[in-house]
Fold each of these.
Amino acid sequence: MTNFFKIGKYSISRNSPIYIIAEIGTNHCNGNMLMIKKMIREAKKSGANAVKFQTFIAKELIDPNAKHAKRLNKILKNNLRWYDLLKSEELSFKKHIQILNYCKKIKIDFLSTPYDKESLDFLCNKMKISAIKIASADITNHPFLIECANKMIPIILSTGMSNMKDVEESIKLIKKRGNNKIILMHCTSSYPTSLDDCNLRILKTFKKKFNVILGYSDHTLSHLTPILASALGSKVYEKHFTLNKNLPGADHKTSFNPKQFKEMINEIRKSEIILGSDKKKVLQSEVDNQKKYRRSLYANKNIRKGQKISKGMLIAKRPAKGISPKFQNEIIGLTAKYNIDVNTLLNFKMLKK
C-alpha cells in the first residue's frame, strides 16, 4: 500500500482525519444550477471535505428498454422508462465545468463517479479530478476498471452487491496496472440500508485481507454507523446529501439534509477525538494523579540499624514519592544503615547490601 496519497488538498492515510464526502449524486433536480450551488454551499457549511456527482451518458449506461429496479416504482409512472429518468439526470460536460469552478471558489473538493470511458476521460483529462470513484455496480466491469486504474490517480472503490471474490478480483486488477492508491469502501446497496444489513465487521475482514485504505459508503439513516465505521478503521466516509428529503427523485428520502449532515459530521469528529492515539503512554492529564494514586514502599514496623529487610517490614502506600513496590523483591535482604521508624517512606540511601 502507498503509505499516503492526496485527494484534493487532503492527505489520506491510516492516520489521517476522516475524509467526508457529501454525495449529491443525482439529487440535483435535473441539473438546476441554482440548486446545485446551494447544495454545494450547504455541504461546505456542514463540514464536508468534498461533494460528489455522477458523470454518465444515459445511452452508454442502460438499454432503453431495461426494466427498472423495484426501488424506483414510485418514481417511474406514466410509462416513464428507467432510461428516461437517467437521461433527465445527465449533467452536461459544460455544467460539470461550472460546478468544478464553483467548488474551487468556495474551497471544497469536487469528485464524481464516471460510468463510461468518455466521461472518465473528460473527468481526468479536462477536469483534472484528484480521484476516481467507482460505483458498486461496476466492480465486475473489468475493462472499465482497467481504464480507471490506468489513470494512475486514487481509486475509491465501492463494494455493494459484491462477494469477496468480486472484491479480490477488482483489487488485483487495479494493482496489476501499477495503481496502489486504493480506498476500499464497504457498502450495502439497499436504500435505505437496514441496520442488520450493515455488517460493519467486514471492515475488519478487509483490513486483514487487503493492504489498502478503508472507507464506508453509507446508505443507513443512522448517525451511529459512521462512528462505528470510524472505530473499525474507515478513513473515507460517503453519505447521500439533499436540501430537502421531500424533493422528487430516487435518493432524496434516503439522504441527510444539511442539519442532519452537520450533526453527523460533528459526531464523527468527536469519535476521532475519542479514538485518539494507538500509543500507550502517560498523558499530561494523568501526571498529577499518577503521583498521588500510585504507591511507594514504607516501613511497616520499626526497623533497627543492621536488620535485614524482610517482606513483613514493608507496606505499599500512597503517594508515589519513593521506591515503587515493583522493586520490593530487590529490597528484601538488604540491610538498614540506621534505625527506621514505622511509617517512614523508604529510599535506597537508607539501605545497603
Amino acid sequence: LTLKQALRVYVEHRLEVIRRRSEHDLEKARRRAHILEGLLKALDHLDEVIDTIRRSRSAETAQANLMKKFALSEVQAQAILDMQLRRLAAMERQKIQDELKEQKQLIKMLERLLANPALMREMIKEELTAVKSQFADVRRTQIVEGMDSKIITATDLLPDEQVWVMVGEKGTVARTTSPEMVKIPLKPKEQPLALLAANTQDILYLFAADGRAVSLPVYQLPQSTELGSGTHWADMTGLSRRDHLSAALVLPVAVDGYLFLTTLAGVVKRVRVEDLPGITTDPFTVMNVPDGDSLGWARLTDGKQEMLLATANGQAIRFKKRKCGPWACLLVG
C-alpha cells in the first residue's frame, strides 16, 4: 500500500469503530432513558405503586399489574420491581429528572453524529490529538541532510562483540558472552578440541574426519560459560553423531587466503577461502579423503608461508606452500 492508501484504510477503520461504538452507546442511552421515564411515573403514583406491589401474589403478577395500571413497558415494570420499596420511596425526583435530561442530550448528540460523516471525521481528529498529547515524546532520531547515504546490509545489523568459541572433543559447540577466555577446570565435562578467539560476525567452520564440513554464524551459537555445556553439532547441522570432528576454524566473513588441509597420512591440499560456500548447515566436501585415511588438521594461511609437517617418530618435511597448488573443494590433495 502507498501512504495515501494506508491512511485511507486507517480512516475507514476508525469511522467504522466510531459508528459501532456510537450505535452501542445510543442503544444504551435509550434503554436508560426509558427506565428513568418509568421511574418518574412510579414517583408520580408512589403510594399506588407500592400498594400494587404488596397486593400482588408473585413477581410476575406484580409486573403485569404495574404494566396494566400505569401504562408501563415490561422493562420499566421490571426495573421498578428490581428496586427495594424503601429505596423506591427514598428516590429524589430531581436527580431522576437531571439524569433523564443528560440521557436525552446524549441521545440527540449521538443521533446527530451518526447522521453526519463530517462530525465523525472531526471526532477522529480530536481522538488522535488526545493520543498525541498523552503519549507523544521528543523525536529520538535525527534527519541529517547533505550526508552520503550508506547501504545497510544484514551484516551491519549483527552484533559486533569479541567472544571465545568452545568446541569439545565429543562435539559440543558454544560461545562465551564476553571477551574473557573461558576457564577450563582440572576435570572438565569434555576435553577441548578448540578454543577460538572470535567475533560474533565471524563464521565457524567445523571439519569432519571424512573431509566434509559445515559452517555456522558465531552469533547464533548457544551461549555458555563452561566447556561441554553447549549444543552438539549434530543438533545444529546435517552431520550425525557418528561423524568424528577433526578440526574447527573461525573465519571472518570477508577474508582472503587459503585453507591448508592435512590428513593423518600426510596428504595435503590448499583451498581458496573464496571457494567455500559460506554459511551452511548442509555438509559440503572440502577434501576427498582416501579410504583408510582421515582429515587431521585445517589452518588458514595467506599462501606465502612455508609449511612444516612433522611425524610422531620425528621425521619432518618443509616446503613452500606455492608448491601445493590451490584445488577445488571436490578434488583430492
